[in-house]
Batch of 2 targets.
Target 1
Amino acid sequence: MTRGFVHSPSPTRVVFGAGTVAQAAEEVRRLGGSRVLLLARPRHGEKVAAALGDLVVARFDGARMHTPVEVTAQALDVLTSAAADCVVAVGGGSATGLAKALAARTGVPQVILPTTYSGSEVTPILGETENGQKTTRRSPDVLPETVIYDVDLTLDLPVPTTVTSSINAMAHAVEALYAPEANPVVDAIAVQAIRGITHSLPLIVADPSDVDARAELLESAWLAGSCLASVSMGLHHKLCHQLGGQFDLPHAETHTVMLPQVMAYKEKESPEALAKVAEALDVPDAAAAVFDLVTELGGPTSLRELGLPESSLDGIEPASVLHAAWAGTRPDGAPTLSALTAQVLASFDN
Ligand code: NAD
């Protein structure tokens, strides 16, 4: 059957490399900015502040996960009273989310320097939380004008966050493969992102300062974010947003637990898409392989270990996925190696 599609490439300018933080001032000026509000925690903020010099007129370091509207209101006050005409954010998806929330309210241009693999910097999506409810909007108004990827900013990202943030990135690529808006460009980018993540991540867990692997992972995270930018959110992202907003669960960790379970569920509906993931991973069962990868790399596999009581899940569908995610069951139901060993040993007892 002929697959019809519309493809609209992103206008975001992307600068990628090592030491590219040095180009921050030039990129701000390119956007016509001369008064910068810098959104950053102290550690990376100093590096970027030094690169921006006297362009910086104000700083705000209160960005929080899931972009609570009360934090945005505080940052908006700082932006307005400093008469800033450009926002520069350095950090993970939380800092980026705050920059986007300011752009949504004022139209201020954004330059983002990512330090995690969330991919938010290349999407026109903003999720905001108010009274425990996360609402998501998609608008070109929140898409950052410029992204500066500097691999040096990612070298100190702790291994546990590196693992969960990478699986968050992988989720963007996996969901793109079964999205109704998928097209050949998105498919190719998604497969490349999945390959790059699975190749580089174990190398980084073995040696967190491996610059080449960090660069491959950062590049893959950009590709994965680009996938999410081109398609609508699927079941996995919707569930993670609901759980994150309602129970204030950590974003990347929630993605890490949910992804293999949703992949197993989607296998029945979209076998061709899951077959592409399996091919990219070079395994027969993609969902089980992602579960095993997370286990091997020490990531979380259950909502239970994120501290969520099972009763919180009542009424959220699909219940089978959520309860498997709560318990951390290996998705294909096949016994894991250790369970298998236990069974064999038990059979000797009989
Ligand atoms: P985050 O930005 O909260 O960062 C996680 C933790 O890592 C924080 O404590 C942060 O200070 C720390 N950190 C970040 N970079 C570091 C570094 N290089 N070294 C040491 N510590 C570092 O988490 P995240 O997972 O990057 O982003 C989550 C947020 O982004 C959520 O609000 C989520 O909704 C949003 N998000 C949005 C999109 C989108 O397209 N709109 C996509 C993905 C995530």
Note: Residues 41, 65-67, 91-95, 97, 115-116, 118-120, 123, 125-127, 153-154, 156-158, 161, 165, 168, 228, 251-252 surround nicotinamide-adenine-dinucleotide (CB under 6 Å).
Target 2
Amino acid sequence: MSAPDLDERPRRTFAVISHPDAGKSTLTEALALHASVISEAGAVHGKAGRRGTVSDWMEMERARGISITSAALQFSYGGHVVNLVDTPGHSDFSEDTYRVLSAVDSAVMLVDAAKGLEPQTMKLFKVCTLRGIPVITVINKWDRPGLEALELMDLIEQQIGLKPTPLTWPVGESGDFRGVLDRRDGGFIAYTRTAGGATRAPERRMDPAEALASEGEAWSRAEEEHELLSADDADHDPEAFLAGRSTPVLFGSALLNFGVARILDELLTVAPGPGPTTAVDGSVRRPDDEFSAFVFKVQSGMNAAHRDRLAYARVCSGVFERGMVVTHARTGRPFATKYAQTVMGRERTSVETALPGDIVGLVNAAALRPGDTIYAGPAVDYPPIATFAPEHFATASNVETGRSKQFRKGIEQLDQEGAIQVLRSDVRGDANPVLAAVGPMQFEVVQARMQAEFGVPIRLETLSYSLARVTDAAGAEMLAGTSGAEVLSRSDGTRLAVFADKWRMASVLRQHPDLHLEPLPAGV
Ligand code: GDP
């Protein structure tokens, strides 16, 4: 299959992940400055009041200055097509971030040089390790006083268990950023400060002798530390990186735009492109096999003008051509792709073709859910995306009793989209489902969307549970009537035992030693 406008350049598909405030939005803008943007699929960057593409599908987003939705930004760089899959920055939306990570081949982890490894940094590193996603670490904000470079390397090795293998090493301590030593050739990439730092930062290369003459002690120290690192086996090892045992490290400043081009260069040289994808039955689709893709995100009500459902799918194999009719693996039914689009703010443009690694937005995709597979040719079904252990629970009830049909429909749709997990039990009945979330802000999103999209005001009452484990039918019987614990069912049939806290769980286990409890898959 070949289409006339098929852009066959190699792909790199990645996400930038970080604890909020580490500089993700700043870096995304800086990356766009170095690259030529091809298209933007509903990508959301920038905070309230800042320049940048700010999605407007929800008032809440604007009011809080955070991005709730996530899609992808596509650009050209160095003969490649780069897909930057956007992750929501707010820690409450970690569930969505986890899903997005199932669509990328590598991740760039931003670490604030002053703050080191923050809670969200740790969680995200762990998810990448579990998923086998290679991570390039970028120590950001080196222009500001912070921790020592060697200390940061120790933190990564000890707290995350990944061997840091710096590709560049800072010259001048944090707060006195002169540039970096390029550990590949031992040369100096000098940073020249420009007024405001708004444009591309000028970078000048010098050989070691010139660097010593120019930077003196700061250069000697960088060289010495570079040698210490080599003696400690901290040189880039492609095999260890791809196997998720080591992480190449770069130093820079997203705000001053220093080291940003280098991140892109390394993505092309060390990060992997799209590889084979393994299906539920263990069979493998290679990128050049027939078309297949999986849905990693579903989004509704993006704005008033397009009140429909958009499913974002990552192409795993073959060539996607708009108009092709594919098969939806879960239902076995045909799915027409004549409305495949990318979305830029309010604007939508058609996608004509896409290759493995690319992200396509499928409009009117009411049947598609996160984790679903679509394919052409021989049948294939990719494994579902792991759901994460909810830590916040609330009951939802319909305030206007006359609208119970809309209430049911809305709750069902938000459950299918993965906006929230919906749990039920015979005791509670259908009118009072329990909503379960990874972050409490998911509740506010559900409440706002129930009102805006289904015209149903809902009341939420927080439950004092904070822990969920998978159990079985026997577990449900054992826990009936126990205070501080309850068994609820997800729509996929999984039974979750929920507990107020780990002490309550331990006490219940002492009473019922036979109780079957297991952590949620890939829960962190
Ligand atoms: P996000 O929450 O991760 O998207 O972080 P932002 O990109 O919004 O950055 C948070 C704050 O850190 C903003 O005030 C940025 O201007 C600032 N910032 C980002 N990168 C740098 C940097 O390299 N150096 C300095 N000094 N500040 C930075």
Note: Residues 217-231 form the longest helix (15 residues).
